[in-house]
Write a structure and sequence with these properties.
By secondary structure, the chain is mostly helical. The chain has helices spanning 6-28, 31-48, 58-75, 77-80, 93-100, 103-110, 114-125, 130-137, 141-159.
Amino acid sequence: MPAVNDEVLNRLISENGDSILRMCYLYLKDYYLAEDAMQETFLSVYRNYDKFEHKSTEKTWIIRIAMNQCKSIMRKKYFQMEREQLSVDKLDSKEITFLIEDTFVSDEVIKLPIKEREVILAYYYQELSVKETADVLGIKEAAVMQRLKRGRERLKKVLKGKIRL
């Protein structure tokens, strides 16, 4: 018996799918791995919805699962090996559109150290509060604030003069 019915799962995918895919892409720097992470995230939601304790919002719970999926992918040997960059001509128009949206700032976010990147993604891209971000990442709120500060400072240095901050 599935842990969640199709109607609830469809609602969760509809409400969160695009933002989870975008976050996974920014986390992993690879569109196809991001799609895999998103699919694994919603498979996990499907299998484990009955274990969701409602101590946080569904969105926060799903983001935590997605970040864990991304971390799992990053631990795999094939991810750690040197990979060639994807050629744009190998992608279809939907994927190209996805990749070029907000690429100017996103490209710089992708370059941040992982601890700063994941906080920036949760706080700004997923619009989680500091407390929710701390819950998702399993760290203290003070650590979230410090990582946000460091991430913003790095981004300001790189983006200074290129966009209005």
